[in-house]
UniProtKB/TrEMBL annotation, chains A, B:
<keyword id="KW-0560">Oxidoreductase</keyword>
<keyword id="KW-0963">Cytoplasm</keyword>
<dbReference type="InterPro" id="IPR015590">
    <property type="entry name" value="Aldehyde_DH_dom"/>
</dbReference>
<dbReference type="InterPro" id="IPR020593">
    <property type="entry name" value="G-glutamylP_reductase_CS"/>
</dbReference>
<dbReference type="InterPro" id="IPR000965">
    <property type="entry name" value="GPR_dom"/>
</dbReference>
<dbReference type="InterPro" id="IPR016162">
    <property type="entry name" value="Ald_DH_N"/>
</dbReference>
<dbReference type="Pfam" id="PF00171">
    <property type="entry name" value="Aldedh"/>
</dbReference>
<dbReference type="InterPro" id="IPR012134">
    <property type="entry name" value="Glu-5-SA_DH"/>
</dbReference>
<dbReference type="GO" id="GO:0055129">
    <property type="term" value="P:L-proline biosynthetic process"/>
</dbReference>
<comment type="similarity">
    <text>Belongs to the gamma-glutamyl phosphate reductase family.</text>
</comment>
<dbReference type="InterPro" id="IPR016163">
    <property type="entry name" value="Ald_DH_C"/>
</dbReference>
<dbReference type="InterPro" id="IPR016161">
    <property type="entry name" value="Ald_DH/histidinol_DH"/>
</dbReference>
<comment type="pathway">
    <text>Amino-acid biosynthesis; L-proline biosynthesis; L-glutamate 5-semialdehyde from L-glutamate: step 2/2.</text>
</comment>
<comment type="function">
    <text>Catalyzes the NADPH-dependent reduction of L-glutamate 5-phosphate into L-glutamate 5-semialdehyde and phosphate. The product spontaneously undergoes cyclization to form 1-pyrroline-5-carboxylate.</text>
</comment>
<protein>
    <recommendedName>
        <fullName>Gamma-glutamyl phosphate reductase</fullName>
        <ecNumber>1.2.1.41</ecNumber>
    </recommendedName>
</protein>
<keyword id="KW-0521">NADP</keyword>
<dbReference type="GO" id="GO:0050661">
    <property type="term" value="F:NADP binding"/>
</dbReference>
Length: 417, 417
């Protein structure tokens, strides 16, 4: 089937999905969960092929571990599908409703976006994850996974499509681009006649490529330098815990702390109590010339170079700089791509508000860790992606962000403009 | 100044605007209104140059009339600016706020999008209109108007920038691309480092060009075939008024009716009472073979060809087709690009809901005219654009749609993921 035919089939499926009752969509999800359990052997066998091929191709162990499915991981995936069943269906809910002076009742009603194209790398759980979130919100999806998990993905999509057919929904509600040709990705990005939104799930290169080439709106996300600014009014006793949590809890995450900014008045005092904890956690420091003398007791510290404060570390490294006040902190953040998650520690209300309003970040925290930026932490029930662009959705995206709205005006024939 | 320099200046201005108090922004708007009045002579003289040039270039009279500024029109523009002052500033308002189980207070706070690029044609009022709406919402704007109104736009932007400087806001809050080179438009569409959103205001060609070439999110809008479906349960006495209003009130508008779909059971009866009114209004009919025999008394009727139901008439022409029921109406609409404004006339609740949920339109009406799709009618206070895409905003866009949101989490140091 050509990509164009897939697009047309997806659009047709989207019409059916858009008006499918929640009970029918939940039933499909329930059957998907059951079928995943019933087909465990086939799925693990397919995944084994991928792992073997990956090993032959010399993929690093960490990568192979990301690709791997086993009984426990498959059970986790199945549990995630059942969790999606339990979430509220946003379709049909109304954002607002008013009665106009002329008597018309005007509301904005949520509905599915339509067809969503998803381009992702490596981990096979994304296949089930995104397919079930799209299905719950009445969207058709066209998936394109990485070649490293080709066999796993094919098996998983087969399970999904079987379940869809069993429950009276079009199999084309979830489609997978099988052919390995790379140009199919470019073609998908220009299939604006049928596809309404593109979600890339992967590295910066993938996002950049989608942004440059897509004629379809793309959800760009996941990048940006995360900063934590310790104001002079901050509680210095409690500050180290928040800093360490932000940096260390999961250094490879996009919301992990990259740069610590400290108010001049409290820099010596804070860093004196912080360095021993950072040493213990094996954190490497990269500091401005001004901060260097305060970090002499650090086990691993070097002077910062030109690019260091523009680097998303994704590791145990932490940048350190001294600033005069919240405005200088904000200026530093502006110059160094603060766009994801940033925090201020302060007990000064004006400083907190200046930071909140002045930071260019999708999520801003007062006296809390940058690590909170997460759909589950935010109580969204699911996380489709984390957007760092400003249109449509920003920050963690839940089910509502997979919907659009239409205006619904109800009158009694007579109102006239 | 290069476009890149303009982008950087706009970004800097956007940071200042983002935290400017509403009073300061309103003051700037007030001074803009005053300066427009004070500089009436210079503005009309500049516009006179454009009109003369247009006349020499052989522009049609209707076009010249669109370009023309006179005292009355300038007064209208000034009144529009004063109206923007009276609107609520959405910046800083919160969309929602919740307290998480761990005690964090989490809200979504509206803030400006940043830098907005606007590409428009002909009418010089757009310059003031979009600049004042962007300014009110704390966004910097980079404007690119049509060459036909170059002198008018330059004069208007000079007035705006003078007013900005007088009120302590950066002049670069509103910038205009002066050089006529067409490639600057393509360059603007790829200035994603600085520009956050592109709004095209013009014909389908301009929108298509932006969609194909922009690496920045674009608000696509204004197109789509508008349908009105008369259900068998409709009040046939009142139907003609709504149909005539939809078609005739302003045939050149994008929400004017293109296609009338009539339920088979009431087709003969409805069309018998409708045709005399359509004759009176000089409406030309384009009908399916099935509808033709019922339209014998029409003054101007012909059989529809292949493309007719895909044509946005923007004139006194109306397509007519007979359908079996609401589902067949929806199928027709799907096949013929219903994406803007569509209406059902019915007294049947199930038919109304089926139509609302099944129509792919930005705005759907029950027993009302398609002409209602308009920011002023919807009580939005201003209309930035009418979006027919599904992301970010759909249908008429007001001030809120010129904002994004950030997540704001406030805690007391202690909550832990």
């Amino acid at each position: 089937m050509s990509l164009n035919d897939m697009g047309r089939a997806a659009k047709d499926a989207a019409y059916a999905l858009a008006t499918a009752p929640t009970a029918q969509k939940n039933n499909a999800l329930s059957v998907i969960a059951d079928e995943l359990a019933d087909n465990q052997a086939a799925i693990l066998a397919a995944n084994h092929k991928d792992i073997e091929a990956g090993r032959k191709a010399g993929l690093p162990e960490a990568m192979l571990d990301r690709l791997l499915l086993n009984e426990a991981r498959l059970e986790g995936i199945i549990a995630d599908v059942r969790n999606v069943i339990s979430l509220d269906d946003p379709v049909g809910s109304e954002i607002d409703c008013r009665v106009l002076e002329n008597g018309m009742t005007l509301s904005r009603r949520r509905e599915p976006i339509g067809v969503i194209g998803v381009i992702y790398e490596a981990r096979p759980n994304v296949t089930i994850d995104i397919a079930s979130l799209c299905l719950k919100t009445g969207n058709a999806s066209i998936l394109r996974g990485g070649k490293e998990t080709f066999h796993s993905n094919m098996e998983l999509v087969k399970v999904i499509q079987t379940a869809l057919e069993k429950t009276g929904l079009p199999a084309a509600s979830v489609q997978y681009i099988e052919k390995p040709d790379r140009e199919l990705v470019s073609e998908l990005l220009k299939l604006d006649q049928y596809v309404d939104m593109i979600i890339p799930r992967g590295g910066a290169g993938l996002h950049q490529m989608c942004k440059q080439n897509s004629t379809i709106p793309v959800i760009i996300g996941g990048f940006g330098i995360s900063h934590l600014y310790v104001d002079s009014s901050a509680d210095l006793q409690r500050a180290p815990d928040v800093i360490v949590n932000s940096k260390i809890q999961r250094p490879s995450a996009c919301n992990a702390l990259d740069t610590l900014l400290v108010h001049r008045d409290v820099a010596a005092s804070l860093l004196a109590s912080l360095v021993p904890v950072l040493n213990e956690q094996k954190v490497s420091l990269v500091a401005t010339d001004e901060a260097m003398p305060m970090l002499q007791s650090a086990n691993d510290v070097r002077a910062a170079g030109e690019q260091d404060f523009d680097t998303e570390w994704l590791s145990n490294t932490l940048g350190v700089a001294i600033v005069d006040d919240v405005q200088e902190a904000l200026t530093h953040m502006r110059e160094h791509n603060a766009s994801h998650s940033d925090a201020i520690l302060t007990n000064d209300l004006a400083a907190a508000e200046a930071f909140i309003n002045g930071a260019g970040s999708a999520a801003v925290y007062v006296n809390a860790s940058t690590r909170f930026t997460d759909g589950a932490q935010f109580g969204l029930g699911a996380e489709v992606a984390v957007s760092t662009q400003k249109l449509h959705a920003r920050g963690p995206m839940g089910l509502e962000e997979l919907t659009t709205y239409k205006w619904v005006g109800k009158a009694d024939y007579l109102p006239r403009p």
